[in-house]
Amino acid sequence: MPKQEIPPSPNKFWKNETIVILFNRFYTLLLLLPTAIPHDYSDALTKSILFFEGQRSGRLPKQQRMSWRRNSALNDGKNLKTNLVGGYYDAGDNVKFHFPMAFTATMLAWSSIDFGCYMSQHDFRHNLVALKWATDYLLKTVSQLPNRIFVQVGEAQADHHCWERPEDMDTPRTAYAIDAPNPASDLAGEIAAALASASIAFKQSNPKYSNSLLNKAVQTFQYADSHRGCYTDNPEVNKAVCPFYCSVNGFKDELLWGAAWLRRATGKDYYLKYLVNNRQAFGEDVNYLEFGWDNKIGGLNVLIAKEVFQKNETALAAYKDTAEEMMCAFLPETTGPHMSYTPGGLLYKHGSSQLQNTAALSFLLLTYADHLSKSSQQLHCGNLKFQPDSLRRIVKRQVDYVLGDNPMKLSYMIGYGEQYPRQIHHRGSSIPSVAAHSTPFGCVQGWNIFASPNPNPNILIGAVIGGPGMNDTFIGGRRRSGETEPTTYINAPFVGVFAYFKSNPNFS
Known about the structure:
The strands form three sheets. A three-stranded antiparallel beta sheet has the order 1-2-3. Strands 4-5 form a two-stranded antiparallel ribbon. It contains 18 helices and seven strands. It is 47% helix and 5% strand. The relative contact order is 0.15. The protein has 508 residues and is mainly α. The chain has a single domain, classed as Glycosyltransferase (Alpha/alpha barrel).
């Protein structure tokens, strides 16, 4: 999995105003230029959902389409005398980290809720299947509330010392839990958001399941709010989770995030008051220009803005105002802080695994554009006004870049197009499948495969990998995990984004 990134320093402004003006004009033209390569967004959508079958842990169903995968980790939870079989491996390793898994579920649910109308029945159904694989497991993680939450299965350090396909794992499958009154506000807040958002996604097709999800979301949020603090405050958990999925941004954003999804799922004023009363105290120290598995503030503001646009909920107007400031930061000709782009036009953030940033922010841009369109409004950035399509053009540039319209002329979605990386940092993909080689590969033998120049024998179709660096360069290879490792939380936001352009393929 990608290592925890250090939060970036505050935006630095160019000192030479002439350079700023020239850059802004150049980049504005770049965003407006039509992309050179036509893309099959319907194919990209279908494959982005199929990817999740390659990340499944547990006993696989008969309908499994990623046929090179087999059952794995069937005794998870045994050391704590509970059933924690199932869920997803977060990336190219074999550990189940519940914090990013919950965020993945939230984004799959949000994709279904706001962009499901753009999906075919086939894709919509499979997206719900991918979501349910996550939420079925998350229900297990909070099955012993109000006193216990399960936070992880597998030992990261031991797992990383071996290069083994999940079907052969002989590394420890230790499960970790947090017991009351120990805090877990970040983890519990994200699980609450995942279950609440999923309750909306399943409301029509599976109302009984939807009610179960919502009831457990309420209970999980109560734990989060009653026992405030980070889940990695626990020394044993900290040792197991960090430095991979520590909550660098703290727990307050997840409390607001969980409350926001519960507000949307229930409509109850309790959560509205919670959001109003805690906005300043909980959100003031967190960068509002970010969104991902760790920092929820950007997504929080865009999510809540919908209530202001559609219901004129003035008590929440401050969230909408901050969301608008974020949207303005994507447009170079505005004043104030700005997002960073590579010379080729990719949204860029310092650190590893660039496309997780691109995916999450692209989702927010499309969602906010949708809010503006449905309320017949424009984006106001000081004295400048922008139509919703100005935001959509930025997203279109990101999507086309990922699918191959980039300086490397390379698709960063595995299995899409003819040119995509053949050596990705993913154990199951790189090691011959059980069907091709029934004898288990050992820990040391696996590293021989890792070092091999041969392409991965199993294609992890639909996986969006970490992507290029700040100058659009991409070297690739299994050793460069920041470039070639896929994660569930890169793909999940892209599901909604691909769905939009699948129904609007000629947008320009």
